[in-house]
Design brief:
The chain folds into 2 domains: 131 residues, no CATH class; 119 residues, no CATH class. The chain has a two-stranded antiparallel ribbon with strand order 1-2. The radius of gyration is 26 Å and the shape is elongated. It is an all-alpha fold and 286 residues long. The protein is built from 10 helices and 2 strands, in the order H-H-H-H-H-E-H-E-H-H-H-H.
Length: 286
């Protein structure tokens, strides 16, 4: 009976771990603002994405700055020049980080609180107004043309009805921590009930290795599914592709950690079993 209880507890712990780990990763890297900024900040260093992003910021500035028609031809070359040099400006990293923060707040806000111009059905909305403000500042300093940065310059990413998925993620991802506690309790119960505790270590190790493989397959499938969608926007497509790659790399580190932990648990269980066998052999020999 004790062996059966131990085995069931290990299985329950592994099933709960299978849910808890991805949920905690999503909460830390997607739902939480600081984690999202840390995950996506390197995207601003991609040359192709930089160019598209700068162009979107300049287009938004040109459309909302109220430049007199007589100065349009004069201002456009200056704006284009500012776009090309945008990523080299001292304030670019801060402006990009603020862009990510504003975008995260728009994406994870309650849809009822969103302004009318924000598409509540998009899975992600980039607000590149901080970058447009950086361009406006540069143009104002280089010319006598006063430009005011717009409050919002929005780039919609995603497809319709994906807002519901965002809402579910926001609600359920933080529950991963409670599930992880439940998994830890199940594993402790397995140790208490086990007649041979090395079998629990081996079971946990093998289970962790299997979970690492399952998570890898699921991560690849999810990335392929997201990459297969189209938003019809060049900036959105570049962001989506880089975002998927960043998520795969980040969660991949968790998968590697799980595989290493599984190998350690398996090796420890085998070592404990071997040590126990040698001790029994010495006792019988005496």
């Amino acid at each position: 009976m004790r062996t059966f209880v131990s085995a069931v507890a290990v299985l329950i712990g592994l099933l709960m771990t299978a849910v808890a780990v991805p949920a905690m990763w999503v909460d830390q890297n997607i739902v939480q603002e600081d984690g999202f900024v840390a995950l996506t900040a390197p995207l601003g260093k991609d040359p192709a994405f930089q160019q598209r992003l700068a162009a979107a910021a300049v287009d938004g500035l040109a459309a909302s700055a109220g430049i007199p028609e007589a100065f349009t031809e004069l201002a456009r070359p200056v704006l284009d020049s500012a776009a090309r040099s945008l990523t080299g400006l001292p304030g670019y990293p801060e402006a990009w980080a603020e862009t990510l923060r504003k975008s995260h707040r728009l994406t994870f806000a309650d849809p009822s609180t969103l302004p009318p111009e924000v598409d509540g059905t998009s899975s992600l909305t980039l607000d590149v107004a901080p970058l447009a403000g950086l361009v406006a500042k540069q143009v104002t300093e280089a010319t006598t043309l006063p430009l005011e940065a717009p409050g919002q310059v929005l780039v919609h990413i995603g497809q319709s009805d994906q807002r519901q998925m965002i809402e579910r993620v926001t609600v359920y991802a933080p529950m991963g921590y409670a599930v992880a506690v439940g998994a830890a309790i199940a594993f402790m119960l397995a140790f208490v009930a086990a007649r041979r505790r090395w079998t629990v270590l081996v079971g946990m190790g093998v289970g962790a290795l299997v979970l690492a493989g399952v998570w890898k397959l699921a991560s690849d499938a999810a990335g392929a599914a997201v990459a297969g969608t189209s938003s019809g926007n060049d900036v959105a497509e570049l962001f989506k592709n880089e975002f998927v790659a960043a998520c795969s790399a980040s969660f991949g580190q968790w998968i590697v950690a799980a595989a290493v932990a599984g190998a350690v648990l398996l090796g420890t269980g085998v070592a404990v079993r071997a040590a126990g066998g040698r001790n029994r052999g010495r006792i019988e020999h005496r």
